[in-house]
Each structure stands twice: as structure tokens, then as C-alpha cells.
Specification:
Helix content: under 10%
GO molecular function: glucose-6-phosphate isomerase activity; metal ion binding
Family: Belongs to the archaeal-type GPI family.
Catalytic activity: alpha-D-glucose 6-phosphate = beta-D-fructose 6-phosphate
Structural class: mainly beta
CATH class: Mainly Beta
Order of helices and strands: EEEHEEEEEEEEEEHEE
Strand content: over 45%
Low-confidence stretches: none
Largest sheet: 6 strands, antiparallel
Bound molecules: 6-phosphogluconic acid, nickel (II) ion
CATH topology: Jelly Rolls
EC number: 5.3.1.9
Strand order of the largest sheet: 3-4-5-13-8-11
InterPro entries: G6P_isomerase_prok, GPI/OXD, RmlC-like_jellyroll, RmlC_Cupin_sf
């Protein structure tokens, strides 16, 4: 059995997996490369904890995890996850936010984009064939829980090469969605 710190975004128990992404790990994720270069490479951007009770390729199995995105910006762009399609394209996922405010960016395989506002209690269904990225547009950590198919896998390469259809930037302090000019 696992124990959740629901609002703190932590999982306690045996076999919990953890990763964190710092500025140094996220080259070419943000548009403003000069701003990225000028930042402390050790700055934490987000961390993930998840449980993997079955093998990664277990058809029908489920994973459960939490992501904490720190508040911050690279240039005008808010801190965000790398974003991905699932390697098995038809695999869906649920996200639910418990702390903070942000945006869930979604994009289908024809690069048609949409977004959903994330606030405590918002529940988001990410259908298959849909890339997903979360942007923290607030002043506090954005914490959301997720449940996904254990054989979903991650395709980061497509987003690395082609980017998302939109980016979220601070415009006079408020978040604004702008079409991407480059990956
Ligand atoms: C998944 C989930 C989720 C995601 C994290 C970090 O499929 O595993 O969507 O756990 O991995 O929020 O985002 P990135 O994987 O895009 O870096
Ligand atoms: Ni996912």
C-alpha cells in the first residue's frame, strides 16, 4: 500500500520512482535560448513521483503519479513540462490539479491545439493520440495527479522536433496563449 500526501504532491511507500527536471535538462524546450543560457542550470523546474506496480509494457495495467511544477519563467515563457505523445498513441490519461493554477496544452496529430485551465479540483481527460504539456502560470507550485496506462510509454522526440502548436507567455503579468513560431 502507498500513502499519498494529496496536497503536498508526494507518495510514500516502497518502490516509488522519482525524477526531477532542472533548467540544465530542458535545453530547447523553451523558446528564448538566450534567457535559458543565462539561468542557473541547477534551478528546479518540475519533479515527478509515480508508482509502477506492474511492468511498463503490461497491457491493462495502470500507473499513478504526481507532478509538481515550480513557479517561474524562462524569458517570458512560464515553467512547464516537456510534453509528449504516448508511444502507444491510443493510450489516454487523467490529470487532476490539487494546488496552483496553470494550463494543460493539448495537441492532436494534425497539430490542432486546445487548452484547459487547471485549478484545484479540475479534472482533465487526455484522449489517446493527443500530446499533453502542463504550464504553471501562477506564483505557487502547480501540483497535479495523473493516472495512465502502464503500456503507454512516452514519445518525447516528436515534440522535441516539432514543438507544440502554442506557447504560454506572460504578457503584462497575465498568461497569454500564442501560436508557436518554432519548435
Ligand atoms: C505520463 C504523464 C506524466 C508526465 C509528467 C512529466 O504519461 O507519464 O503524462 O506523469 O510524464 O507530468 O511530464 P513530461 O513527461 O512531459 O516531462
Ligand atoms: Ni502522459
Amino acid at each position: 500500500m502507498m500513502e499519498l500526501d494529496w496536497l503536498g504532491g508526494k507518495i510514500a511507500g516502497e518502490g516509488v520512482l522519482r525524477l526531477s527536471k532542472k533548467i540544465r535538462d530542458l535545453e530547447d524546450v523553451f523558446e528564448d535560448h538566450a534567457a535559458w543560457t543565462s539561468m542557473d542550470p541547477e534551478t528546479l523546474v518540475y519533479s515527478v513521483e509515480w508508482t509502477q506496480p506492474t511492468a511498463q509494457d503490461n497491457e491493462g495495467g495502470l500507473f499513478w503519479g504526481v507532478t509538481v511544477i515550480e513557479p517561474g519563467r524562462v524569458g517570458e515563457e512560464f515553467f512547464m513540462t516537456r510534453g509528449h505523445f504516448h508511444a502507444k498513441r491510443d493510450r489516454g490519461e487523467y490529470y487532476t490539479a490539487v494546488q496552483g493554477t496553470g494550463m494543460l496544452l493539448l495537441m492532436d496529430e494534425s497539430r490542432s491545439g486546445r487548452w484547459e485551465q487547471m485549478t484545484p479540483g479540475s479534472l482533465h481527460y487526455i484522449p489517446g493520440h493527443t500530446a499533453h504539456r502542463v504550464v504553471n502560470t501562477g506564483q505557487d507550485p502547480l501540483i497535479f495527479w495523473a493516472c495512465w496506462a502502464s503500456d503507454a510509454g512516452h514519445d518525447y522526440g516528436t515534440i522535441q522536433r516539432e514543438g507544440f502548436s502554442h506557447r504560454v507567455i506572460a504578457s503584462e503579468g497575465s498568461p497569454r496563449l500564442v501560436p508557436s513560431t518554432q519548435p
